């Protein structure tokens, strides 16, 4: 297996995964979406809510606020040895906001105060509810470590997909230029002796094969590379894009090791 990073930022990444089959590529995609545990608000104790929203609506909005998570410092709640929650699997966050009389005030995710300084809202500007003068919202939220396959609030990868790396071959070209004109993404250009792929544009190919259809002499072929995939992913901020990739790989490795141990006992 080989990974070639094309683009990498704090919350997004684009890379090529090579020397694997489609089953492994899809397993990595699913792991990033559903099998990497994250922290999310699971219980809310509301002590005072005079806002326009019902308690349930406030709790729902808070549950979908991404929380910065440390993969190594917390244990998924369902796997923890405790029964009612402990510092290893849960974190308490409090919120207390009151709008001054005659003014309006918006409650944001950044108003959550965590008992653990390492845990905070990934984005501090997510609006929760708008309060009018004199209205108040006081609550305690309990965040638990969980998996995306149980609920979307624990899904760190908000967008993750892949496609096969395209393979374009051109032989015996007669320089008619029809394939160049047909390509919707300007991947092809006319060279001195043949049509050719423009440098750094191959990965933009959508495999539409319009160039193949207009070529009257079958000089061009377009196919998928069955062992090489272009991944695009975006994190919700619970983890950085790099952490999400590595945590997904470690999750797959752990599951494979567990399965190997079980089979060894048979």
TrEMBL record:
Function field: DNA-dependent RNA polymerase (RNAP) catalyzes the transcription of DNA into RNA using the four ribonucleoside triphosphates as substrates.
Sequence positions that bind [3Fe-4S] cluster: 205, 208, 211
Keyword flag Electron transport: no
GO biological process: one example: DNA-templated transcription
Cofactor: record remark: Binds 1 [3Fe-4S] cluster.
Cofactor(s) listed: [3Fe-4S] cluster
Organism: Methanohalophilus euhalobius
Gene: rpo3
Similarity remark: Belongs to the archaeal Rpo3/eukaryotic RPB3 RNA polymerase subunit family.
Catalytic activity of the protein: RNA(n) + a ribonucleoside 5'-triphosphate = RNA(n+1) + diphosphate
Main location: cytoplasm
Domain 4Fe-4S ferredoxin-type: 164-193, 195-225
PANTHER family: DNA-DIRECTED RNA POLYMERASE, DNA-DIRECTED RNA POLYMERASE II SUBUNIT RPB3
EC number: 2.7.7.6
Protein name stated in the entry: DNA-directed RNA polymerase subunit Rpo3
Record carries keyword Glycosyltransferase: no
Residue spans crossing the bilayer: none
GO molecular-function term, one example from the UniProt record: DNA binding
Description of how the protein assembles with itself and partners: Part of the RNA polymerase complex.
């Amino acid at each position: 297996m080989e990974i070639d990073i094309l683009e990498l930022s704090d919350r997004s990444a684009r890379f090529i995964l090579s020397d694997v089959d489609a089953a492994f590529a899809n397993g990595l995609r699913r792991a990033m979406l559903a099998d990497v545990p994250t922290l999310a608000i699971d219980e809310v104790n509301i002590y005072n809510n005079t806002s326009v929203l019902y308690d349930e609506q406030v709790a729902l909005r808070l549950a979908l606020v991404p929380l910065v998570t440390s993969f190594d410092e917390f244990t998924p709640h369902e796997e923890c040895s405790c029964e009612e929650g402990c510092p290893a699997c849960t974190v308490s966050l409090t919120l207390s906001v009151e709008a001054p009389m005659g003014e309006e005030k918006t409650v944001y995710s950044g108003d959550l105060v965590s008992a653990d300084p390492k845990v905070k809202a990934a984005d501090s500007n997510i609006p929760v509810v708008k309060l009018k003068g004199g209205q108040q919202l006081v609550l305690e939220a309990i965040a638990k470590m969980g998996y995306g396959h149980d609920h979307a609030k624990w899904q760190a990868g908000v967008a993750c997909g892949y496609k096969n790396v395209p393979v374009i071959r051109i032989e015996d070209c007669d320089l008619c230029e029809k394939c160049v004109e047909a390509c919707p993404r300007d991947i092809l250009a006319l060279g001195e002796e043949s049509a050719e792929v423009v440098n750094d544009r191959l990965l933009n190919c959508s495999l539409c094969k319009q160039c193949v259809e207009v070529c009257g002499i079958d000089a061009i072929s377009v196919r998928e590379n069955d062992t090489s995939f272009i991944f695009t992913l975006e994190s919700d901020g619970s983890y950085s894009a790099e952490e999400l990739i590595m945590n997904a790989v470690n999750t797959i490795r752990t599951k494979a090791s567990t399965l190997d141990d079980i089979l060894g006992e048979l």
